Amino acid sequence: MNTVIETILNHRSVRSFEDRRLTKEQIEQIVSSAQAASTSSFIQAYSIIGVDDPDKKKKLSELAGNQSYVEENGHFFVFCADLYRHELIGRMENKDVEETLESTEKFMVALIDASLAAQNAAIAAESMGLGICYIGGIRNHLEEVCNLLKTPKRVIPLFGIAVGYPSKIVDQKPRLPLQHVYHENEYQQNEEEYINQLNEYNKTISEYYEARTAGQRSDTWTNQMGNMLERKTRMYMKEFVEGVNFNKR
Amino acid sequence: MNTVIETILNHRSVRSFEDRRLTKEQIEQIVSSAQAASTSSFIQAYSIIGVDDPDKKKKLSELAGNQSYVEENGHFFVFCADLYRHELIGRMENKDVEETLESTEKFMVALIDASLAAQNAAIAAESMGLGICYIGGIRNHLEEVCNLLKTPKRVIPLFGIAVGYPSKIVDQKPRLPLQHVYHENEYQQNEEEYINQLNEYNKTISEYYEARTAGQRSDTWTNQMGNMLERKTRMYMKEFVEGVNFNKR
């Protein structure tokens, strides 16, 4: 196993950081790494907002559900789907690009582009000995986040990444069995086998929680997922993304 | 600069591969790397289909617009947004999860999850000396791709990654200037400066194409983007994703 794969396999979310800011050089290496990712037809449909301002970080932390590590970290990156520059390009080049920009296809392209870039940033940061945590919680209140970060229409802040020097390292969470996620040549739609695999995985996860909490937490993955998915959260999203001119047609 | 960041910054798409298949061990390292990526609230909302069957690869290549490297490579991975297993979980746990699974929010979660996993896979493959190319072309005809790969509802094949031993290495395409993509504390919505940056970048891209094609191709980035975005492609996507029960509410 090479060092790159070691770095990738060693990932765990870090939620507790030292009080130490990233340097300009570190930030630039992380952003350059993000930009090196593949991009659909060279479209580069994303932007990154680095948040360092203490008031803004505090506000973001509140909006994300009072997660302290959104405020207390070495640097906070917000990854955005971005077709605003492509709207400008339409005007510069005198081309009618509106229908395309508002299509579900380009919504997908922008989400995928931003995510590929973000994962490069995450791996780059981890390779420097930094810890990271993705923050989907910024999608709890996107209108307020957009106001705070002054994003124009055709830009959606998708998630944050808190980066910094780890002050506490936790265990890795075991993933679904490889055979459950990886299919050969076609999707193995065998419901019985699928449920058997999930039951097996439930045992792994129960053991993980029990060991981690010294017997305090007893939970399975399917129970955790069932409870989470039963709650209807962020149901405003469809209207919101259409309101900023994505995913409309 | 460490080896991980070197690997990341050295990325270029490879579209020509030796006739040499990946080993089972290589495939498993790539898939395990994908699974190590962060996942929103531990939801693991993706699947990977590894395609090795020559007939299926040939068919996929045709569907993706006759891209030979979809057929001729060491292994072809299809990354899918997947909430099918979460539908099963709803039944296993007797929870009503339908509204959540059909929300735009969970459509975004599944796209982001699949993309983070894919980029880990891409970096892992590149770290082994393999080349990769993302294939968005499978979205040209998704219904046929779904039939070929036998995916159930709540699964969307998003893109492929062709992986293999490179037989031809091309130059890297220069990315947008860092300051154009990276904003500090808030989105720098200064249209004039934005357009200046795009004009600067156009010069870089013109020089790149001229050097690469010995003067044969003269193009700018904004012209290329304007032409691409004027064409209305994959406009069936909204209806398609709703038809497989994503992005409906």
UniProtKB/TrEMBL annotation, chains A, B:
Recorded superkingdom: Bacteria
A Pfam family matched in the record: Nitroreductase
Keyword presence, Aminoacyl-tRNA synthetase: no
Protein name: Oxygen-insensitive NADPH nitroreductase
Record InterPro entries: Flavin_OxRdtase_Frp (IPR016446), Nitroreductase (IPR029479), Nitroreductase-like (IPR000415)
Keywords (A to Z) from UniProt: Flavoprotein, FMN, NADP, Oxidoreductase
Family: Belongs to the flavin oxidoreductase frp family.
Nitroreductase domain segment(s): 8-165
